[in-house]
Write a structure and sequence with these properties.
The chain has 120 residues and is α+β, with helices and mostly antiparallel strands. The chain folds into 2 domains: 66 residues, no CATH class; 38 residues. 45% of the residues lie in helices and 12% in strands. The protein is built from 5 helices and 2 strands; from the N terminus they run E-E-H-H-H-H-H. A two-stranded antiparallel ribbon has the order 1-2. Strand 1 and strand 2 form a beta hairpin. The protein starts with 6 loop residues before the first strand and ends in a 6-residue tail after the last helix.
Length: 120
């Protein structure tokens, strides 16, 4: 589902976490268009705002082709892996410093994959 509409950037607000809240005003919308917008609340997406010129079909196709996999998860892969290691460390009794446990686990993974590399 997507929203493609003409609108005016009405303002923005800086937030405590350094993100920005953008506010747009559109032309009148039908009840079904408002319902579609309502269904998109709290979802991740792409914002593309352009001044006076209209979008052409090539730009629309390019926007539709953007892979959202990177944005589906609010945490990066490395953050997720670190969190898993932390839970595992806690589950195993939380002995020693987590920093050292994390370093040992990541080193083990690195060495595992290095051993699979062909010497070229």
């Amino acid at each position: 589902m997507r929203i493609l509409t003409v609108g005016q950037l009405d303002g923005y607000q800086r937030r405590k976490d350094r993100s920005i809240s953008l506010r747009f005003i559109t032309q009148e919308k039908t009840s079904s268009e408002v319902m579609e917008i309502d269904q998109l609340l709290d979802t991740y997406g792409i914002i593309y705002f352009r001044g006076e010129e209209n979008l052409n079909q090539e730009e629309i196709a390019e926007l539709d082709a953007i892979e959202m996999d990177l944005y589906d998860q609010p945490k990066s892969q490395s953050q997720r892996l670190r969190n898993v290691f932390y839970k595992l460390w806690k589950q195993e009794g939380g002995k020693g410093e987590f920093k050292e446990y994390y370093k040992a686990q990541t080193e083990r993974i690195i060495e595992h994959f290095k051993s699979k590399l062909n010497d070229e």
